[in-house]
Write a structure and sequence with these properties.
With about 300 residues, this protein is α/β, with parallel strands linked by helices. It is about 35% helix and about 15% strand. The protein contains eight helices and nine strands. Strands 1-2-9-6-7-8 form a six-stranded mixed sheet. A three-stranded parallel sheet has the order 3-4-5, with helices on both faces. Strand 4, helix 3 and strand 5 form a beta-alpha-beta unit. Helix 1 crosses helix 2, helix 1 crosses helix 5 and helix 2 runs parallel beside helix 3. The longest helix is centred in the middle third of the chain and has 18 residues. The N and C termini lie far apart (about 40 Å).
Length: about 300
C-alpha cells in the first residue's frame, strides 16, 4: 500500500504500439507517463528536484519557490509542493491551455501568465528577474542536474528492466532535455550500442513540449554527445499521430507525444530490426480546450 501520492511516481507501463508500424521486424513500445499521479513524465523531475533541495537544506517551508513552465512541469511542481507544504509561483505564457492553469491552481500554486508573444523564453526571463531580488528560489529545471538524475534513477532502469534488456532505440521529445539526458546516461551504461534519438520540431513548427532552443536559452543540462540522432517533426505529423494513438490504440496523449511517436515510426522504417521505446509524456485531457482533437 502507498501512503503518499508521491509514492506512485514512476513505474509507468509499456504498451505495444507495433501495429502502427509497417516494418514487422521492429517492435514499438510506448512508455505511458500519463500514468504518473500528476499526469506526466515531469512528476519524476519535480519530485527529485524538490526532494533533493529539501535534503540539502536549500529550501524549507518558508521558501518562496518560483519556476517558469510551459505546463507539465508546473503541474508536477504544484502537486509535489502541495505534498511538502511548500509555496510556489508558476510562470507560463498566457496561451497555455486553461486545463493547465486550473490544475496548477487546484494544487494551491500561484499562476502568473506572461505574454504569449515572448513564449517560454519570456517566462524564463521573468523568473530570472524575480530571483535576482533575493526573495525567490528557483529550482531551474533547465540547469538543475536533479532534473536528468530523476530519469537516471527511474526511467532508464524501468525501460531496461521492462524490455528484458532488449531495448535497442530510445526516442524522446526534447524540451528541458532532462528525460533524454538521464535515460541516455543510464541505458548507455548498460549497453553502449543502444541508440538515443531526440525529437525536435522543424523550423516552422510550434509543438507544445518540444523545443528547438536559441543558443542563449539552450538548457545547461543538455549534452549533445548523449544523443545519437535527432529527428524533426512538423505540427501536422504531431497532431495526426496524437489522434492516431487515441483512435487506434486507445492511448490518449498530447501533441509532443504524437511528435515523438511520429519520429519513432520514421525511425522504424529505417531499421532492419529492433525494439524501440518511445516516451508518451502526458495525457490528452489537458489539451481538450485546444484544437488538437478537433476533427
Amino acid at each position: 500500500m502507498s501512503n503518499k501520492i508521491i509514492d506512485l511516481v514512476g513505474n509507468t507501463p509499456l504498451v505495444d504500439g507495433s501495429s502502427l508500424l509497417q516494418n514487422k521486424n521492429v517492435k514499438l513500445l510506448l512508455k505511458l507517463e500519463g500514468h504518473n499521479p500528476g499526469g506526466s513524465v515531469k512528476d519524476r523531475a519535480a519530485l527529485n528536484m524538490i526532494q533533493s533541495a529539501l535534503e540539502r537544506g536549500e529550501i524549507d517551508k518558508n521558501t518562496q519557490l518560483i519556476e517558469p513552465t510551459s505546463g507539465n512541469t508546473g503541474i508536477a511542481l504544484a502537486m509535489i509542493a502541495s505534498v511538502f507544504g511548500l509555496s510556489i509561483e508558476l510562470v507560463m505564457p498566457e496561451n497555455a491551455t486553461i486545463e493547465r492553469v486550473k490544475t496548477m491552481r487546484a494544487y494551491g500554486a500561484k499562476v502568473t501568465l506572461t505574454s504569449a508573444d515572448i513564449g517560454i523564453e519570456g517566462a524564463r526571463d521573468y523568473v530570472e528577474d524575480k530571483v535576482k531580488t533575493g526573495e525567490y528560489y528557483t529550482l531551474n529545471q533547465f540547469a538543475n542536474p536533479d532534473n536528468w538524475k530523476a530519469h537516471y534513477k527511474t526511467t532508464g532502469p524501468e525501460i531496461w528492466r521492462d524490455t528484458n534488456h532488449e531495448v535497442t532505440h530510445f526516442v524522446s521529445s526534447m524540451g528541458t532535455t532532462g528525460t533524454i539526458m538521464g535515460t541516455s546516461t543510464y541505458l548507455k551504461e548498460q549497453n553502449k550500442d543502444i541508440q538515443i534519438v531526440g525529437v525536435q520540431p522543424d523550423d516552422e513548427a510550434r509543438i507544445p513540449g518540444i523545443r528547438k532552443w536559441k543558443p542563449e536559452y539552450l538548457p545547461k543540462i543538455f549534452d549533445a554527445k548523449k544523443v545519437d540522432q535527432v529527428i524533426e517533426v512538423n505540427e501536422t505529423e504531431a497532431q495526426k499521430t496524437a489522434r492516431l494513438l487515441a483512435s487506434k490504440l486507445g492511448v490518449f496523449s498530447g501533441m509532443s507525444s504524437g511528435g515523438a511517436t511520429a519520429a519513432a515510426i520514421k525511425l522504424a522504417n529505417t531499421l532492419k530490426s529492433g525494439t524501440i521505446v518511445s516516451i508518451v509524456c502526458d495525457r490528452g485531457d489537458r489539451y481538450l480546450s485546444s484544437d488538437l482533437f478537433d476533427f
